[in-house]
Every structure is written in structure tokens, then in C-alpha cells.
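Quick entry, no commentary yet.
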Amino acid sequence: MINVAIVVNSKSGGGAERSMNILANELFNRGYKVSLIAINESPPDFISIKCQLFEIGRVWNDGLFLTFKSWLKFKNIIYKLKPNLLIVNCDLPEFFTIFLFKKFNIICVEHSQYPWRTRILLGKIVRYLLSLKKTKWVAVSDHLTIWPKNLAPNKVILNAVKDIVKPQFQFSGPIKRLVFIGRLTFQKNPQAFVRVASALKLPVLIIGEGTDMSKIFEMASEAKIDAEFVGFVKNPWSLMQKNDLLLVPSVYEGDGLVVIEALQRGVPLVISDIPEFQRFELQKINYAKNEKEFIDLISLEILNNSVFCIDQNKTRKILSDRNIQIICDSWENLVGNTINQNRI
């Protein structure tokens, strides 16, 4: 039996975590021995995890000593599991992995266009040390290269999405609320969201947490916006109402899970006109290059949010490559080849 350990920042929080939870469950269903190792403390995800779950319990922004204690827990778990392969996701798991002195087959997953954005030098060192371990790289989108040398990944494997039951209502009527879903960080650009809402004088629902949360709360308060902050929600789509409009003003993206899940649910949206989102080839009305375009597009169609919904045929085409069976077939092929090529 192939023994795979998947290492993530936390068991919930973003596209990387959601996609790995889905993958872990499918590999488990196919008879793999799968362990999911979550380094940081977090609430449960919308996806119920079927395989063995190890939660190290590190608190975000822990200091050096507590982080070292978390690494010791991580090391002990890995050495006890003795996996045939590690699937490593995002900065902190990469950092923890370079200090494993026993040999392991390693596949790292590039989820972002700008990994290690706030710790560039450390990131370069970590990536160099990973290269010495003969790490293979998977990119979750064909627009991604492997930082910092812009290398081609060994394989591109899209993130899977979980099948859902269609919403019980259709989005229609005047736009009565703007919705933001995602981490409150520079990448997701919640500041632009608040400024757009202020210009349109519309109430907002902000779903998510992050380092910029206090700043966003202060901006909304100063602009006298009717703002509801609900923090992390396991299933944010359950809070959507038929007169809502989702805005995704990201500066850059990896795979763009929020957009993909919104398409899956028929949610009306306007998103940043960035290369990462252009690959979806939506209608012109769904893209905005800047805050003024967000404001102008919404102002023109303020009485009819359904014009921002995506044609079902287009949605089916986008989602057709996200089927978990197809995605897991690709992962199985890569896992088998990696283990066979690098017998330890």
C-alpha cells in the first residue's frame, strides 16, 4: 500500500487547503494510506476529512521557540509515519520540510504566482534546499511557473472541486449587497472592495480573516458603510442572498478557488481583469481593470444582478477539467512515477 503524507498550512483557510482535503479523501477512497498534516490551528473545513488527520496546533505568527516546538511535532509525525511520498503545500510546510534529514520523495505544489512574497530571501534559500532534495513540482494552473527561477513545473494538475447541489434560488433583481469572500490580505485586495462599496453606497458582507482585518474594519467604519464582518465561515455560500453581487478584486491569484466555486453555484460576479482570471474567458461585463471600472459596471446594472451571472454552458466547460476522478488519476500517475524513479 502506498503511504502518502499531505502537508498543509491548516485544515481550512483557502484554495490550497480545500483542494488538498478533496485530494486526500479521493486517494483514501482508492486505497492509499493517506495522512493529512495541518501545521497551523484552524477551524474545520467545508470538506469533511476521511483520512488520518494530524493537527500540530501552531498558532499563526508564533515566535521562533514555539515554531521550533511545532517543527519537532511535525518531524516526529513524519518519522513515525514513514511515508513513501510527501505532498507539500505553501511556504510554512516547505520550510518545515527542508529540515527533515531522512530521505523522502517530495512533491511540492505551487499554488501562487508570488510565493514567499514577504520573505523573499528565506524563500530562495528554502527553494534551493528543496532542489537538493530532488523535489518535483506541480503547478495548479498552466499560467504558473516555479519561483524563483521561473522553471516549468514537472506537471500541471488543476485543483478539483467538490460536486454540489444547486442553490435553491436564482440570483435576480436589484443589487442590494456586495460580498467579499477570501483572506483579508494584500493579494485579495479587500481595500479596493471597501472603496467600491463606499462609492456605490451599498452594504457589504465580508467573509474571511487575515492580517489586514483591523485595517479593513477601520476603512469601512470611516466610510460609514453598512458592513457585516463574519470572519471565517465553513461554507460561505450559505450566506449568499438572491440580490447579492460577489466582487473578487484580487491583485494576483493562483488558481482562484472563490471564482471557481462561485461559477459552480451560479453566483453573479465581477472579478479583476488579471491574467489568472482571463483564462476563464468570461463576458466582458464580468471583468474590471480597476476600481473605477468596478464602480461603472455595477452602476450601469444596479437594478439587475442576473446580467453578471455566467452562462451554464460556459460554466460546465470550465468545470469539466475539475472532476475529482480526472484530477486524482493525474496525481496517481505522478505519485507512482515519482516513487518508482526515486527508490530510497
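second:
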Amino acid sequence: MRKIRSLSALLFIAISCLAQEQVRTPDSVYLTFGKIFRAESIPSPSFSNPHHIAQYAFFRCSNGQTKQLLREMGHVETDADLGKAFLTYVREFGPDLEQFKRQAIYLKFHGYFVNKTITVWYYYLVKKDGAHLAHDPWISVHRSNTTGQCALTGIFLYDPRDGTPTMPKNLITSNDNIK
């Protein structure tokens, strides 16, 4: 009888742990529009927190550590080919962020987009006081609606020939716009 209770207790704990791993923190926890985050190396970044990943990924890439970031960060797309394409994009354009090496760069959470499989988080590169950098560069992070895991997916910097791509229109930019 004692073995059965012990086995039942262990089974209950295992099922509870598994269930907790599958519980995804809702996006609403992270919806702090206009909040400014320092781009920095976070000792133990949560890959389910889009703000952590924006800070951490920007810091890694801007310090010449794009390859290291890619070893740590997987893709978050349900379509594996699309996920691999985003990782290739970061591999190619992540080193462009090295132009900000040794600069104190901050990220201002601007907007949010909801899709069936992912949410997209948009950040302007700003100064500590929130003033936008010249030419309004920005980055984006995707968050899986299934796993809650995040990955850097977009780097949009100034090009003298083409300018800086603008952020998409119709983003959710305040809690008042959440459906």
C-alpha cells in the first residue's frame, strides 16, 4: 500500500510538472507599450519573454556574438522552412548590429501583432531617455502561440539608398486596442 501511494505521488508530481511546462504565459503579461528596456546580456534570459529576447538578442548581435545567439535560440514558427529562413536572416543581418557596439542602446516596445500561430513584438532602438535614434531603426521578435518561445526575427536598419523600412501599420500599440 505504501508503494502504491508513493508511486501515485510521484506520478502526480510528474504530471503536474509536465502540465506546468505546457502552460504558456499569456501575452498580456508582457504588454507594456512604450516601456524602455536596456539592450544587455541577461544572465538567464527567459526565451518565453519577448522583452528579454529583444534585449538579449540585440546585445549578442551588436557585440559580435550572432553565432552564439543562434546556437542558443531556435526558431518559433510552425512552418519549419519559414523558421529556418528567419534564422538565416538573423545569421546574415545580425552582424549589422555591430555598428552599435559599445553604445548604450535601449529598446522601446512600440507595438504588437497577433497572428494565428505567432505574435510579433516591435521595438524601436532608442536612447536611455526614449528619444529615437537617427533614421528610426527597429527590430522584431516572434513568439509562438503554441510554446510561448521567442526568437529575434527582424532587424531593420538605415540604408543610405533605401532609408529604413517602416514598421507595419495597424499594430496594437496600447492596451486600449487589445481585442
